[in-house]
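Entry 14. Ran structure prediction on the chain below.
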Amino acid sequence: MHSEVFTGLHFIPIVGLPGAGTTELMLQLEKRGKQTISIESLLGVSDLFLAYSNDKKTVNHEEISNILTEKLNGLNREEPVYIEWTPLDFMGATLPIELIDNIRRFRCLVLSCPRQKRLTRLLKKYAEWESNIESVIDKVSGRLSPENLHEMLLCANSSRKNRFPEFVTCMVDRYLDPACLHEIFEFDCAFVIKINASGRDFLSTFIPNQTREGLIQQIL
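Output, structure tokens:
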């Protein structure tokens, strides 16, 4: 019923590793009058992977289809739509396959950011979880391999003073970054962009027929 709505738009998917700043970039685009969509905003959550990972609270297929249809029907089909694209593994909803296929046929924009800057942002973002690391592990445990879960538990149970930074770093390396990279590789081509310190200009590198090695070299 909604298939025409999901396939009739020109999307510009914006993706990035956790902490790269895709949400901030989307806000800048919105301020400049561009058409934008954030799956997180539509679902009313601030962090999809923690909101829905291994959690009973999910959004059913019909509900998310109706939410998306209402949003997409209000857009100008003559103009591109920037969408903050999130790994499907993080979502508490099954997106319409027509929408997924349509988005993945476009070239994505991959926002690059230095690793240490990303980690600093994530430590601030997840600061509220420092006193309750076990809850985070409980949410993501169902999506981790036994080996990765073991590594995260070691960090969580550490008595060292810097336990939380080590835990966040482990979560990034073992779960968040791999999930995001997997999603990026679903696109055939990508533009890797780096925003300068002023936030006004960016450098762009086009990677056609991207290889895993080539893309990782550009964004890690």
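The beta strands are 11-16, 35-38, 81-84, 108-111, 190-195, 202-207. Will compare against last week's run tomorrow.
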